[in-house]
User: Fold this.
Amino acid sequence: MIVWLIAACEIGFWVLLALGLAVRYLLRWRRTSVVLLLCEPVLELVLFVVTAVDLRNGAEPGWEHGLAALYIGYTVAFGHYTIRWLDGHAAHRLGGAPPPPRPPRYGRARALHEAKLWLRALFGAAVALALLQCAVWYVGDSGDVSSLRLFQGTALRVVGIYGLIALSYTVWPRKAPAGAGTEEDAPGEDRTPSTSTGSR
Assistant:
């Protein structure tokens, strides 16, 4: 059941996102779009509650509970970033706003961009590790928590991979081609497109 709920939450995330952006830029109902987008965290809350209830009812801790924790951690860390990124493109294509800035590709600006992504991954892993550890404490010595420990290791490995990628851009920065200029602007995630839309 947990696996199906994770799939339903993922589908629900994209459906709510598509609906929110559609009513914002096609129907010009800004307030309605905000309500739809604010429903996104409810999906993670439902998944968390159902997972906790499943364990409370005596379910043996399994990989699906670990996967649920990783999914919640990922959406907490990257969900808002994804929404803002897609909002920028929707504002450009549907609302007549200027094109959203692209992530920098060279030099210090790219290294900073990768470092911010690593911090997001670190935050998501911290959320997942905390949820997994709470599950371990809850189960205690009465059940097998090896699968939960395994996913804790997975979360740490993901952070390590992100860290190595970010470090590589710092140690070996990509140089801009001759005549391309420098990129010192902050990454696109720090900017929010401004659009003139109606409200409902």
The chain has six helices and no strands. The first helix runs from residue 2 to 25.
